[in-house]
Amino acid sequence: MFPLCRRSVLALLSGAALMPLAAAEPRPSARLADSRIALEFDDGLKSRVLFRSAATWIPLTDFDASESLHLAGGKTAGPFRYAGHRETRVRDVHGSGRRHQIVGNSEDGIEKTVTLTLYDRYPGFVIQRVIYRNTGKQALGVEGWGNSAHMLKETGRGFWSWNGSSHEDRHDWVLPVKPGFNQANFMGMNGADYGGGTPIVDVWRPDAGIAVGHVELTPKLVSLPLVGTDRGAAVAVDMDDKQTLAPGAQLATFETFLTVHNGDFFRTLETYQKLMTDRGLGSPKRQAGSYESIWCAWGYGREVSVDEVRGAMPKAAELGLKWTVLDDGWQKAIGDWTPIAKKYPAGDADMKALVKTIKDAGMRPRLWIAPLAAAPGSDLLHDHSDMLLRGPWGEPQMVSFWNSLTLCPAYGPTVEWIKQVMTRIIGDWGFDGVKIDGQHLNGVAPCHNPDHRHARPTDSVEGLQNFWKAVYDTVHAINPNAVVEICPCGDSYAYHNFPYMDQAPASDPMTSFQVRLKGKSLKALMGPAAPFAGDHVELSDGGDDFASTVGIGAIVSTKFTWPGEGHGESTNVRLTPEKEAVWRKWIKIYGDKMLPLGRYRGELYDMGFDKPEAHAIEKDGRLYYAFYATEWNGPIELRGLTGRCTVHDYVEGRDLGTVSPTNPRLNVSFRRALLIEAIPTGASA
């Protein structure tokens, strides 16, 4: 029935199916709690999760077989018997907290120690590690392990979810969960060139939610399965870890987490970001240039000419756009990052001349590049085939969009090569930034290339972030004000790469909803003032939905052509006189408000259950709200108010009334979007 389920969820579902609907609750043998979460363990080391709402503890799950060791032959270790509970005070990079150790033993000779740590600074967030020790006389064959396998109970109002894995069909990260929903959320490769992600899965009801994931400092090939049934929504952290456990030996899981919350996924992602920042994996200091608006030459496609760029750029500058991005088509080949002779016959001199032209127009130049990809027939592969990432049978990893092959990011010569490329782009040619592009750069497969002498094949998986660190450090050593943009086309961003990027775009959104859900996600994962770009507005609903970018505090971006069309498939983006009026209006609004510099208030609205969809930003003493619906005629609620305010529609230039904390509702009508600001009484619009 659930072929994609991982072992831990299958065991959980099997147990749930056998449980009577009115089963008596086991008596807890151990309990640990803070102000938001409680975990209770029964005599068999099964646990249940409770969430504190006001003064009431709400059981979110039943007693589930939450932690498990999967043995050879399809067996699961246990059953276990509770043997003790120890609590100690701790203090580390996360501040002060309490550590609990729950111990149990099984008849098959395994000792199980569940260690759970709750920190004062992060109520509702539990960090977990489980240790299994073979106390028997026979070696045990182990297939893997699972942590935090729980089923959030059904209340009749449904579920929504946030899923951190990447998929070739580029489907939404935010999805409703109904019976039959089944997503494995594997953090490795889910396609030849689609993989990696943020190791979190979150599922919530209108009143409460539960999320699980891992907090390791490098990517891990875990699965975070989410399964919907008629009894609830099941989650887990599941890891394949084949090994033999000798007598006396022990297996320790990764550090995983379990958290509870109200509202949607935003609180989970925000807390995760803060905790990982404690551990040294936070986003870098923001560059002012990261917030500037963007014109990209991709509207002309790969056949773009230098004359077309020079011709459209003055129009972009006149409209108020600040960046000119030279996209795919300037290079000799994928992997050969030198100017193509038919467009740049003088080579480096022509690139420098184009950079000067852009800067003379008052704009900043950024150059597109797709590292870690090399085309068959390129000089790079001819001279350095040793750089290839290879699978267990020597096969290369494909990059489909460019018909290219993946290079290994954990191979020293590959790293030194990309540093030389970045030195040429930023140092020699004078570009102020790079647009790093491609679905293949979010995650890679394990590398078995014998030339690389990896200690483990997963060195490539865990070393990808160090590759991006080398790029980031090289660029900023040359130009501290440069902007490194990473666009993992359609992937769910790999959190471990965030410390090495200055700007993140919506990465080829297929709908305006994707622009907004990605914006909310990255405002949590990179910080509330994250420099998130809405990507080319031409990719939004109708090709002109600036409201979905401006309203959520994203940076405006466009790929219009002017005065002519693009080439081949890159057509229908010409800036007509009718479009120019719209573009000019929205680019001015963006520049006037600069909402990306504000604090995104993602905790105020639930992206799944609240209708209409709503977002809020706090900036300069005002709250800015954005509401979205195909068509809406009814009340909206302005949350987060601290005083009486006049409500102003800053797109159409009209006042809509007054609101206050005790009377925060307005009746409105709109199509597509309504963008408003709440101006404290006494301030001017």
TrEMBL record:
Q: Which UniProt keywords apply?
A: Glycosidase, Hydrolase, Signal
Give start-end of the signal peptide.
1-23
The superkingdom listed in its UniProt entry is Bacteria
User: Mind telling me which CDD domains this protein's record contains?
Assistant: GH36
Cited Pfam families: Melibiase (PF02065)
Residues folding into a coiled coil are: none
Acetylation as a keyword of this entry, yes or no, is no
Q: What is this protein called?
A: Alpha-galactosidase
Q: Which organism is it from?
A: Rhizomicrobium electricum
